[in-house]
Amino acid sequence: INAKHDPLCDHGKLYAQKLRKDGVPATRSVYRKSLHGFFGSGIGESTEALVEASSALRNAFSLPNADIFDEESFVNVPVEVISLAEDVIDEENATNALSL
Predict the structure, then answer these.
(1) Are 2 and 30 in contact (CB under 8 A)?
(2) What predicted TM-score, i.e. pTM, was given to this entire model?
């Protein structure tokens, strides 16, 4: 996740490219209206970025046999998937985590 108006935005692009080149699945999203440090700030596109990151982490760490645990072992918090079609650049045909 990168902010468009961030001096480190190009570094994020290069890092995502390197990960993909090395066979690591990586998705890169650029939030066009945001500045460096927006993630978790509660302003602008921060909420959308947090939803995207939490969705990706939930999918990455999901338990394949989660049904062996009782429901009380987990806290189920519904997450609304937000469409960011206008606000996210999906670099190099990478799949946007929010389009799941």
Answers:
(1) yes
(2) 0.58
